[in-house]
Amino acid sequence: MPVLAALDGGVLALTLNRPARLNAMSQTLIAAMIEQIERARTDPAVRAVLLTGTGRGFCAGADLAGTGTGVLDAAGRPDLGAVMERLYNPLIRAIREVPKPVIAAVNGVAAGGGANLALACDIVLAARSARFDQAFVRISLIPDLGGTYFLPHTVGDARARALAMLGTSVPAEEAERMGLVWQVFDDASLMDEARKMAARLASGPTLSYAAIKNAMNRAATNSLDQQLDLERDAQRQLGQSADFKEGVAAFLAKRPANFTGQ
């Protein structure tokens, strides 16, 4: 199985499972990922998603031998755009739009599209030995899987341009300082810490998480007025939820809230 999936306590753990290829993304892996993200979107039992990789790497990017790089256009030229449109772009859109929090636990190398797959997630954690590598320029391409969007929005324009043009490999602790990742852990404790965070999110107000994701996604292109209107509408809807009532009651009673996602 190119992707291992296990649901426990509201957390859908997805593990990229091609360790001999450093979990490079094949057509079957991408299809399996999209299927599982769709499961997360529609299954109320899934309240958070945790993504990691088997073996010594998170994801080495595209499997250049197995993701349709031989697709040709009408003139017989390679058509990588068709590959992006059919495979990679739907995966990134699915991760960004699923109304559940998605955590990436980067357990090793995250190169090329693998780095940007991690950046597409809501929260990125990394092992101390992990590294993030925008390797595209080495084969005369640009960062894809949203890389040209995520990088400047995450680390700023100047750093994003340098990372993309130099193809520099960024160690985990430097990635944390730059804002590429939320937190770095010792290798041995990464998955325990990632599971704790995923469990925390799974027990939280999932309607609020969905609204936060939507608002953050829209913020990049909205004007301030549009964003204020979006916040107004979201607060109106959330203020009528059972979880809001529970949150206020728990606050007043000085007890932990019991959120149900309703």
Radius of gyration computed on alpha carbons: 19 Å
Low-confidence stretches: none
Within CATH, the superfamily of the largest domain carries the name 2-enoyl-CoA Hydratase, Chain A, domain 1
What coarse outline follows from CA principal-axis ratios? globular
CATH C-level class of the largest domain is Alpha Beta
**Share of helical residues:** 40-55%
Mean pLDDT rating = 94
Number of strands: 10
Question: H/E order of the elements?
Answer: EEHEEHEEHEEHHEHEHHHH
CATH-assigned fold name of the largest domain: 2-enoyl-CoA Hydratase, Chain A, domain 1
Number of helices: 10
In the CATH hierarchy, the architecture of the largest domain is Alpha-Beta Complex
Report, as a whole number of angstroms, the end-to-end distance.
Answer: 34 Å
Supply the helix-strand structural class: alpha/beta
* Total domain units: 2
- The biggest beta sheet, please? 6 strands, mixed
Strand arrangement in the largest pleated sheet: 1-2-3-5-7-10
The percentage of residues in β strands lies in: 15-25%
